[in-house]
Amino acid sequence: MLDPIAFSIGQFSVHWYGIIIGLGALLGLILISHEGKRFGIKSDFFMDLVLYGLPSALIGARIYYVAFEWENYKNNPLEMINIWHGGIAIYGALIAAIAAAVIYTRKKGYNFWRIADICAPGLIVGQMIGRWGNFMNQEAHGGSVSESFLRNTLHLPNFIVNQMYINGQYYHPTFLYESVWSFAGLLFLLWLRRRPFLRAGELFMSYFIWYSLGRFYIEGVRTDSLVFAGPEWLASFLKTTWSPMSSFGWGMMEAGKNIRISQLIAVLIIIAAVVFIIIRRNWFKDKVRYSDPIVPQKSMKHAPLTIEGKPTPEG
Questions:
Q1: How far apart are CA 250 and CA 243, in angstroms?
Q2: How confident is the model at residue 300 (pLDDT cuts 50, 70, 90)?
Q3: Are 18 and 26 in contact (CB under 8 A)?
Q4: Single pTM value for the model
Q5: Is 158 exposed, middle or buried (0-12, 13-18, 19+ CB in 10 A)?
Q6: Are 17 and 86 in contact (CB under 8 A)?
């Protein structure tokens, strides 16, 4: 087993979990800043955005997880802040980070959807790398599998196979599935953002659709899903939608209660994102495309006008 602690200074230990999450955030920031320069937005803007968003995301992810696992934390309040022990929820992180980003972009006079589009590839990079923090902690894995499945079917290297051996049993490396899915999503988003038909907000929505689609199916084999007791028709719908994965020899893990929260949220996000794109394209007059210049609203008040009455890029 790999040591989850990178190094120690006295009684203070630095965990690989935090280092990996920080590395993911840094690489995501570099990617975002590079794209922002194309629109004349300085790197400092995105650095400040990360300073708002990253702490908000970590706090939101922890609050979300603790809220749904309250029985395990109510008698041990200090454990609530030990985020390096694992136990965060990506959807909680996204909710908090988006709220922080909305406040920050409005304060700076930018349209939120334009900035969110630029940030979408950086977000998926952070998730792609951050999942390796779960790998180091041996958490967020799937159900039990054979060693042969890992070595001969998935052809995984020894260091991954060995790390997936937990308490005498091998497990699905769901961290790896999600990381690979996010990498494919990154390539898709980088291709999509150069398409001339793409409109403001649609790259961000495409990120949500891609990530949620993968998360829905990967969640079905995880053993640590947040769950609740819901109507049987909804549970049946989710299981039926997931069932194509059984053709790969995967079996949905029993989760105690019948509704996996992340699966339900993934479906709702996909539906909401598709509806957002359809409504924005057909009923809203806002036809701004991803490639159009980004002009802060504060600057537009003093911008020189063209014949059509629209602000010039220099404005």
A1: 9
A2: very low
A3: no
A4: 0.86
A5: exposed
A6: yes
d(CA 155, CA 148): 9
Amino acid at 193: R
Distance, in Å, from the CA atom of 29 to the CA atom of 4, rounded to the nearest integer, reads 25
Residues 212, 214, 220: CA angle, nearest 5 degrees: 100
Beta-carbon count within 10 A of 94 CB: 21
- From CA 115, how far away is CA 106, in angstroms rounded? 11
Could you tell me where the DSSP H helices lie in 138-260? Answer: 147-148, 158-163, 174-192, 202-219, 232-242
Q: What is the DSSP string of 26-82?
A: HHHHHHHHHHHHHTT--HHHHHHHHHHHHHHHHHHHHHHHHHHTHHHHTT-GGGGG-
- For residues 132 and 129, what is the distance between their CA atoms, to the nearest angstrom? 6
CA 256 from centre of chain: 26
Amino acid identity of 182?
S
**Spatial separation of the C-alpha atoms in residues 82 and 28, rounded to whole Å:** 25
SS3 166: strand
The span from the CA of 308 to the CA of 294, in Å, is 17
Q: How far is CA 14 from CA 93, 127, 160, in A?
A: 22, 20, 22
- Quickly count: other Cβ atoms within 10 Å of residue 264's Cβ: 19
Is 195 within any annotated ligand binding site?
no
pLDDT, tens only, 81-140: 766 666 677 888 889 999 999 999 999 999 999 999 999 999 999 999 999 999 999 988
